[in-house]
Structures are given as structure tokens and as C-alpha cells.
Amino acid sequence: MTMRIKAMPAVFLMSALIGTTSVRGAGPVLTPEQIQAAIQEGRKYKTADKFLDKGLKGKQVELTGNTNVTFFNDWQSVALESAAAHQQMRELKADEIQTNGLLHAYVEIHAAETWTFRSGNGKFRHSHLVLAIGDRVIQPVGEERVIKDEGSNKVLVGRGWVITLAFDFDVSPEDLRNPVGVIVIGGDGHKHEKKADLKGILNTD
Q: Rounded CA gap, 42 and 85, in Å?
């Protein structure tokens, strides 16, 4: 699978993995051995960009030609953070990692046309992601996190501008047995939705 997420910054906000948190997801939690294996995998990559480009194994859902969502599990998140640590010449220790069985998602939005920074910021930066499972709407855990914003220092942004937002969801493997609705709600209220097969995405074996 070819991943479209590229050129991410070196610093990642991994609040669902590093440090203490009261959120306990319904997905499988990594064992110490799995955490160490994920750290070792991430160290194979010189930068986080290279891991995202060549190493990340997840499920990509294209909602429109300009918007796609990539889902991945805790193991991939640890490996990603390890690659970022390797790039920054800092040591990432297994005892710093606290996995909680969450489903992770990156929403990548490409500007379809030229916008001023202000209108682009409102339209894209404040986008939201939810999952529809049966008659339930699953909201993300916590707030979205801006992972990349190429237009933050520009007056005008065009088709080359990309913003990436991160979300975490508390869902179980059973929740994902059937196709789920992936819904991105733009800052202007417009919705883009697509059914996606996420079965097995939480598996860490």
C-alpha cells in the first residue's frame, strides 16, 4: 500500500502512549515485549518521515480526492514515536510507553484550491473525525492534534498545502467486525463519509 502522508515534523504529540492517562481503550494492550519490538522497528528508520513513507502499516480510507484517513494501532504508534526519537537523537525507553488499546487516525487534507491562510485555517484546521458504528456515533478521545500544517506561515496557500490532524478512538475489535462509517466534518460544516473495513486493524500480533 502506498501511503500519502509525507514530510511530517520531527515532534509528535503521543499523549495516548507516553506518560500517564486515564483513558483505557477497549483494544488489546501491548506487552512489554511488543513495545520493545516496536521501538526496535522504529529505530531502523532515520526519520519519522521515512517510517510514515515506508514502514507504517495501517488502513487508508480515501474520502475525496483531497481528504484521506489512515488508521493504525498502538504498535505502529510506538514505532512511529521511536523513529521520531531516533531522528532527534533521544532515547525512547519501553518503560516510558503506556499503551491503552486505542485506534489511532491521521486525517490528511490537501487544499483543493488557493485560500487565504485565515479561510484555509478555518476550513481545514478545525476539521473533525467521527466513526459511525451501527446507530452509534463514536467521538474521538480528547481533542484533535495538529501534526502538520504547511500553511501556517503563508498568506496564500494552494494545492500543495497539506494539513494533518490526529485523533484517537476507544473502540473494540468487535466494534470493527463490520464496516464502519468514516466521517470527516470540515470547519465549514460539510461532511465527507465513506464506509470502511477496519476489521483486524487493532491486532498487534
A: 9
Residue ranges in the chain modelled with pLDDT below 50: 1-16, 18-21, 116-118, 120, 155
pLDDT for 26: 84
pLDDT for the residue 15: 41
Q: Are 117 and 156 in contact (CB under 8 A)?
A: yes
DSSP codes of every residue in the chain: ---------S----TTTBS--S---SSPPPPHHHHHHHHHHHTTSSSHHHIIIII---EEEESSSSEEEEEE-HHHHHHHHHHHHHHTT----GGGB----PEEEEEEEE-SS-EEHHHHIIIIIT-EEEEEETTEEEPPSS--EEEEETTTT-SEE-TT-EEEEEEEE---TGGGSS-EEEEEE-TTS-EEEEEE--TTTT---
Say whether 86 sits in a helix, a strand or coil.
helix
Classify burial at 44, counting beta carbons within 10 Å of its beta carbon; exposed 0-12, middle 13-18, buried 19 or more: middle
Give residue 3's pLDDT: 42
Domain locations along the chain: 32-196
pTM: 0.82
